Every structure is written in structure tokens, then in C-alpha cells.
Amino acid sequence: MLLIQDFDLSSATTFHLPARARWMAEYDSVDQLRSILADSQFATMKRLHIGAGSNLLFTKSFDGLVLHSAMKGMSTVADDGESVIIRAESGIVWDDFVQHCVDSNLYGAENLSYIPGEVGASAVQNIGAYGVEVKDLIVKVEALDTFTSGMVTFTADECRYGYRDSLFKRPDLAGRYIITAVHYRLWHTPRYTLDYGPLKELREVTYLTPATVRNRVIEIRRSKLPEPSELGSAGSFFKNPVIDKSMWRHIQSSYPEAPHYDVDDNLVKVPAGWLIETSGLKGAVEGGAMVYQRQCLVIVNTGNATSDDVVKLYRRVQATVYDRFGIMLSPEVNVI
């Protein structure tokens, strides 16, 4: 167990913005987590559980307890010859889990390569990329109920997954459940999703492996997204908006080349990055915050940004895109 008072949050988030927490506690077992939660000195404090800090924007210092999992166990709990179920504990780096699947020649997770974060957060956020969401892999989620200190298990259906959404993000339940492990189903035989962007080119590859797909996804992500160690960011700052087809047809009448993805017969998903760039915001700056020039979906810390700079910039982006397209972008980042 690790306990640190007056903790520097810039070291625990990929935005690297100045902020501090009154306390930080890291645990490597459920018993340690229970012990921390039962400690009288933390009983009346606000609590926030974080993963790798890749989806967080602290607008000020946090006067409470920040929790982090160092639980890193992983095991295969079932294998029926067609698929396997792997139980991964919450503190495992997400991309390490994907690498494990690819090294084991298991299919299903390769499109989700190089997404920052940890296993526990993957099940909260329903991370996704290139036509795959983690809900497509999740079988069940283990969590500690902080109200009762008992362990509970949720099936994937009970997690109520939506686009970057889950039961665990509901305002009335936020913070109640701390995810300790996730069970994922992977496959022994190919189940590729190659319908999005540059991945379409892989359809022509004669001998395709999960490693081939993973390597291509990593190449794409590195070409578009900054490395957090070099340029602070929280990855994709905004969700790709889903709009009805009547609104889409109106946009298409002015922008015939506009990219889109059909969600169903009535709804269309439009890339937020395209909306931002088309609104003339590529490279837009507020103080030390900037709309990343290689991928407008990202806001970066150029080195000396404050949280106020980021807030001013993302609100400017929202207002400008709304004025141009009538679409209000929603942050994917969790603003604290």
C-alpha cells in the first residue's frame, strides 16, 4: 500500500497540468482497498478513483482522496476451444493486456491497441476504436461496492454500455463501485473488424494476423496522436457526435466530402475532428493549450498550459462548432 499526502497530480495524469490532491492511496489487493476506505481519516473526504490519468482534466486541486489500483493479476479462467475468457485485474495497463492477447494469438482486442489507460477504466469508459468497443469483449465486471464493502459482479448487459458510457458513469452511482477485475472473451479464430479508415487496406493482406492489425493500428495512432511523455494531452477530447439523418443531409448539402458512419437507419456518427478542423480551429490556441494540428480531436498542453487555458479552449471549440453546424460537442474527457 502507498499513501502520499499533498500529491502532485501532474505526475499522475497525461495532461500534465498543475494540480494537487490532499491524499493519494494506491492498493494492490481488495483487502488493502477495504482498509483504506475504512480508515477514519478518509471517512468524510471526497473520493476519486483514477486509472492511468489519460482521460482526466482537473480544473483545480482535489481536496480529497485519490485512489489508484496496483492490482495486476491476469489468468485464463475458461477455454472451450472456440474462445477463451481472461480475467484481468484493474491496474493492468490496457495496452499490455492487448499485447498479451496478440502474443497468445487471440482475436478481438487488436483494434483497441495503444489506447492509453488501464483495465479498470476500460470497463467504465467503454473505450473504442476502429469499429470495436470494449463492451464487445467484456463478459463480466467485478467491483467493490463502497456502500457495503462487499464484492459484486455485473454482466456486460447489466453494465448498460453505450457510446463511451456505462452504468458506472451514472451520476447517481458515480464512485459507488470500484472495479477490481474484468473478464474478457477473446477468440481462437479470426474475427476482424476492418471497416474503418486505413484498416480497410488490410482486407487485401493474404496472411493476416492479430499482430499485423495491432501494428497498423499503432502506426495510425502514432501518426495522429501525440505521445503523452512528449506533449501532454488526454487523447480524444470530444466524443464523435451522433446526429439524425435529416441534420446529416443538411451538412452534406454544403460538404459533400464530409466523412460519416451510419449507426442505424436514422442516425449517423460524424467525426468530431472533422467538424473542428472544418470550423477553422486547427492549431487554435488559448494560453498554453492548443488544438493539435495533426488531429483536431485532441487538445494538447504545449508545455505551460493551465487548466483554465484548456477549459477556455474546449468551450471555444464547442461554441464555434455549434455556430457552424448546430452540433454541440460533448467532452469525452472527465472534467473534475
Automatic annotation (TrEMBL):
One of its GO terms (biological process) is peptidoglycan biosynthetic process. Its cofactor is FAD. SUPFAM superfamilies: FAD-binding/transporter-associated domain-like, Uridine diphospho-N-Acetylenolpyruvylglucosamine reductase, MurB, C-terminal domain. GO terms for molecular function: FAD binding; UDP-N-acetylmuramate dehydrogenase activity. Its main location: cytoplasm. It is an enzyme of class 1 (oxidoreductase). Pfam families: FAD_binding_4 (PF01565), MurB_C (PF02873). The keyword Flavoprotein applies. Gene3D superfamilies: 3.30.465.10, UDP-N-acetylenolpyruvoylglucosamine reductase, C-terminal domain, Uridine Diphospho-n-acetylenolpyruvylglucosamine Reductase, domain 2. InterPro entries: FAD-bd_PCMH, FAD-bd_PCMH-like_sf, FAD-bd_PCMH_sub1, FAD-bd_PCMH_sub2, MurB, MurB_C, MurB_C_sf, Oxid_FAD_bind_N. It is found in: Cytoplasm. Its EC number is 1.3.1.98. The active site is at 164, 236 (proton donor), 332. It catalyses: UDP-N-acetyl-alpha-D-muramate + NADP(+) = UDP-N-acetyl-3-O-(1-carboxyvinyl)-alpha-D-glucosamine + NADPH + H(+). GO terms for cellular component: cytosol. Pathway: Cell wall biogenesis; peptidoglycan biosynthesis. Keywords: Cell cycle, Cell division, Cell shape, Cell wall biogenesis/degradation, Cytoplasm, FAD, Flavoprotein, NADP, Oxidoreductase, Peptidoglycan synthesis. Residues 16-189 form the FAD-binding PCMH-type domain. Cell wall formation. Belongs to the MurB family. HAMAP family: MurB (MF_00037). This is UDP-N-acetylenolpyruvoylglucosamine reductase. It comes from Muribaculum gordoncarteri.
